[in-house]
Amino acid sequence: MGTVAGAQQILAGLKQAGIDLIASVPDINMLQLINLLYEDNTITHIPVGREEEGIGVCSGAHLGGKRPAMLMQNGGLLNSCNALTTTALQFGMPILLLIYYAGDIGDNAFHMVGLVTEPVLQGLGIKYVVMRDPMKVKQDIAGAVTLANSSKRPVALLLTRAVL
Amino acid sequence: MKRFECLQAIAPLIQDELFVTTAGGATAEWNAVRPSDGNIQVKTLGLCSSIGLGVALALPKRKVFVFDGDGALWMNLGSLATIGLHQPKNLIHICWDNQQYESSGGEPTVATAGRIDFAAIARDAGIKSSVTAATVDELKAAVSHVLRQDGPHFIWARIEAGRAEAPPLKYDELENKYRFVRYIEDTEGINILRVAMPASYLQK
Question: What is the pTM of this model?
Fold first, then answer.
């Protein structure tokens, strides 16, 4: 489920980094963060049915001047590979990918998804940080958004339970 | 009716509306009929409706057209539910249904069997303004309506197969993106693409 304090810190980091639109597909470990997004009035929250849609929404939102992020589980990263490749990367779209890292060390489910997550990001040419240190949450978010904007590419943050 | 004659009929109604056009024949034909930096091509089959939704959400006062196809819409049918959920008033989604994957060689789509009703699906997803157009006059009347009224809107345009002779696009996807974004910046008076100050200046 995550903790309220963890979710609050992530949301504060996203706002400080200028993120103003978040498309999402839920995961139980991001429940607190998603609950905050439903309550928050300053970030436009766009729940979508499938992650590939979310990459489209974030791409369109960027074209219209928003600073978008896509919140999803790593299974959703796999669902969205074509949109990431032929829209986000091919057109050069700065999108922050906030990905819950299911199947990570210490996780008891989805070990196959966990196994392929980092190789898939590497194969796509998407830079990423595995977030394990709650003290570095805001720094990691700010750094990822800076790189997304300067490279005009998606950049991923893999969220582990330690920071949620 | 042919798609190209429909595009020619609606082009005079268009002013500064934005167009997100599918990875298919509609893109080249629309850019031939109405060349503009307000048009952006899509390379991911099915994603035009989602990209158009994103543009519409970011610019709620600007009308945004999506040109979809029956094969592309089948690939992202869930986007109708998402549009119905978020109710963007400025989104106009037209599905050019030629009952085949024409750009892929003419293979059948879900529409070929003749049972699916895309307008009914859109309506039941919460897109209340959803109509079917089978003649050029019906299509023109539908577009006139959506330009005057709040949406979201969906138009199921039932066309004959066949592509018009249209020149290749003038710009690749990157140049198209930059021109599209600069056009939005200019017409909206906003700043979207910012170049960071070199670090040496920031450290002073």
Answer: 0.97
The residues spanned by each domain of chain B are 3-202
B192 lies within 8 A of chain A by CB: yes
Q: ipTM score here?
A: 0.97
When pLDDT is averaged across residues B83-95 and rounded to a whole number, the result is 98
Instruction: Quickly state the pLDDT bin for B194 (edges 50, 70, 90).
Output: confident
Query: Which superfamily does CATH assign the domain made up of B3-202 to?
Result: Thiamin diphosphate (ThDP)-binding fold, Pyr/PP domains (3.40.50.970)
Q: Do B57 and A61 touch (CB under 8 A)?
A: yes
Q: Which residues of chain A have pLDDT under 50?
A: none
Asked if A63's CB is within 8 angstroms of B40's CB, the reply is yes
Whether A60 sits inside 8 A of B44 (CB atoms) is no
Q: B interface mutation test: which of A91, A95, A124 has the most B CBs within 10 A?
A: A91
What distance, in Å, lies between the first and last C-alpha atoms of chain A?
8
Q: What CATH number does the domain located at A4-159 have? A: 3.40.50.970
